[in-house]
Amino acid sequence: MVATLTFSDIMSVELNDLAVRCDQDCLSFCLLGCFMAAFYYDFNLAHRFKELCESLLGLKVQFSAELGTRTKAQENPLSQLILVVERTHAANSFQSPSDGSTAQPKVCPLEDDNLLDFVRFMDVTAAADPKLSVPEQAFVLCSGELHRRSHPHDDLIDEQSLTYVTAVVRAVAGSDKNKVKDDGASESVPRNAVSWPILTEALFKRGSYERRSLARTERAIRQLEEIAAQFSSPAPETEQRGMQHFFWSRMPSQWQIELSLARVLTKIGSTKSALDIYLRWQQWDEIISSYTSLGKRDLAEKVIRERITSGCATPELYCCLGDVTSDMAHYRTAWELSKHRSARAVRSLGYYAFRKDKNVKKAAECFEAALEINRFQVNLWFTLGCCYLQLHDFPQAERAFRYCVTLEPDNFEAWNNLASAVIFSGRRAQSLALLKEATKWNFDSWRIWENILLVGMDEGSFGDVISAYHRLIDLRQKHIDSQVLGMLTKAVSENLPDSKNCGAARYRKDLLTLFGRVTATNPSDADTWRYYANLILNSNAEAGPVQFQRAVQYIQRSYQCRLRSATPDWEFDKTAREDLLADLQAMAKLLIPTGCVDNFTSDPEMKLFITSALSSLRMNINLYIARLKSAINKCVGNEPQEELAAVTKMLSDLNGTINAALNDLGDAA
Where are the TPR repeats (predicted)? Predict the structure, then answer.
């Protein structure tokens, strides 16, 4: 109630009247107003207070970038985010009587062999530490807090917020050094003013933001331990700790610092050390979670039951008891105790039904009830969508996944599942667009690209299919889908209309490039070689000698691949026999002089190639006939013998035709 009245009082102040004042009370009021307005999400008011602070202090802060290095071994400088402090007028209109320095908390270094404490900039002017007075340091931290609260939480915002904090820490910790003059002499650089509360706030925030490496996490632990210990340290004296600057900062209390330390310890796996802190500050949810992660469910259950028997029974405690004991009755108790208002209780009932009872319908009903209470549960929307997919309720699945991607646009799995729900509703074009959206958030998921391959083929979006096939090869080193390649070959060869009602022949060049990659990465697939040959032969333009030779060679490779991959007794496998026979017939049809081949025989080199290919074909047919005759002798029934005999006769006739063609070519010579 006090905070609400205070904020109401702040809102009732006429801000224009503050602009004429330039004293410490005015700055304190504006800094406090900026923070409280941001705390209550009134960002317009917060920015107005920020503008007043800028006017009082005569400065602006904004992001910029400079080339620099972060490690000692880094040779090539990269662009680094920095905070630039710009003075709006030379003479600062604000004069603070309490701008003197105080004692300084210990600033822990990284203690790493490679990482630098601060970015080393290439530009000397950028490398110079900013000159910030105590009120200016307070304003920079307040601006960083406003920036953090007014943007959604992600890694980029954390990095930007850390830049505000680093500017203050660097201004204080980096200013205590000597500057080399032009004549080589050394002169002392004036030290920036230090404020115990403001620097404590900056160090606390830096420890919360730094999670990029193990060295920084270790420094964060040491720093949080250091500033937590300062509360019980007798030195420095209280009057040296800058209490006059207290209301310019958001200096954390001891319990906030220690709990932040406990969270960092939990993150790196030091759960026992974190548990000691949680026990000291009676953080029951964290205590229960720590006991559970340590495998001490009995102790967690004991703590919960003690809390319940002490008269502190809450729906959350009963939910925790249900988590520890895996007893659904406790979730029901929590649900009833909350008078059907606990989202966690009914959500837990849903998960129990989903995982333990395998009752997907009941789970979906519980999840719907939980989302009616709190609709901002992204993971629950995703799980609900999966439930509806299992129930084949695709409109409801689409609704759930649409909520999920609205709340979390970078959830590529939700986009992928949304596309699945849409395609089952018969909207293939929309499903393809959703799958493309999923690739924006995860370009390396082969499952999404495989879905694009299949959906794009059904939709006739041949360009997307070819692109997806290339990406699958990139991700998996090799990828074979003979059915898709065959359909693409048919579409391009027959110039079938695509999704935009344009002829597919325009993709011929792209498809040839794709076949080149497929055969290079996996040269043992017979169907791929066969389709490759068909694509070359079915060109609208008349095939030249080079294309003709390639087609013959690809069919030969198709036959050899089938022969190598066939089972030892492939003669008795009708499918294997027919596939091999089809390759031999296709090769014979291509090589026996008719039309196009007659034109090639006038060239001595082409005539020699055709003669050699026909001789090789005749040898393969003779080997095939020999295998079939041997198989006929092994047959017991009449029906298999008749089938093999029919194939043998067909091959013998084909062999006779080849002999005649070879004789004609010999006579022509």
Answer: 378-411
